Amino acid sequence: MSNSDSGFERERRGEGSGPESGSGGAAADDGGARFRLTKPGGEPVRAGRNLPVAIASGVALGALVLLSLFPYPQAFSLITAAATVIGLRELNRAVASGGARLALPPLAVGGVAMQFGAHFGGAEWLVGTTALTAICALAWRLRGGADGYVRDAAANLFTLCYLPFLLGTWQLLVAHPGDGRDRLIAFIIVTISSDIGGYFAGILLGRHKMAPVISPNKTWEGFGGSVLACMVAGGLTVSLMLDGPVWVGLVLGVAVVLAAIVGDLIESLIKRDLGIKDMGRFMPGHGGLMDRVDSLLIAGPVAWVVLGLLL
Known about the structure:
It is found in: Cell membrane. By secondary structure, the chain is mainly α. Helices cover 65% and strands 4% of the residues.
């Protein structure tokens, strides 16, 4: 999971996140409370955020997910339903900065219904509720007239597919008969590993820019760290938690890391296009909820397909 400006490394980000050369101490220790890392040559790493707060926020969110899965995995539907509502609020604020308007009532009601439909009815119900929600959102916007209708319709359909539909694939994972709970946990562990491996490889070794136009802080060294971490995590989780062959875990790791990177870049480009820094302030140290789940949103359906085909 990654803040989309962070992806693999943040060593160049964040004003005032460390002493500036030649400042004679004027840059002050705003960093007394900031976590410090140094590169192999001794150069300080500027993490661009308060890492202890960010880590605590991430742990709290992970604990909430785990508590919803045990002993009744059905309760996880409430988590993604709440995430749908919070994410819609953040996306509404974001697209409003570009002049678009979301049909929030049908998107919220339909988005929540999609979570429960996916869990209790499977892929067919997810597709069905998505289609009905799309129709309702397009019809809701009719009362606004022709001016900007195509723009708003596009924003509504994008939001519908990007948030509640992709979240619904998490429900398809957890509702899988027998080992659904373990499939979801494995997917989350592998995706988180992408961010952790890429983060530390990027801040310690990052030199060569990966996508400077879209997200200037990402490097190929960070990408290598993500791939390695995901493959290790995939091999371990599939073999130990799902009783599958290690090679399936390696395939899962590669597929998830590619999806996570794409998800990270997608949200970076969305925010760059709309001229915003963060989607919201839901999680201290991470920004909005959408900033935190960008990689997971895209990796969810990929993990569902890989595990469904190979296990």
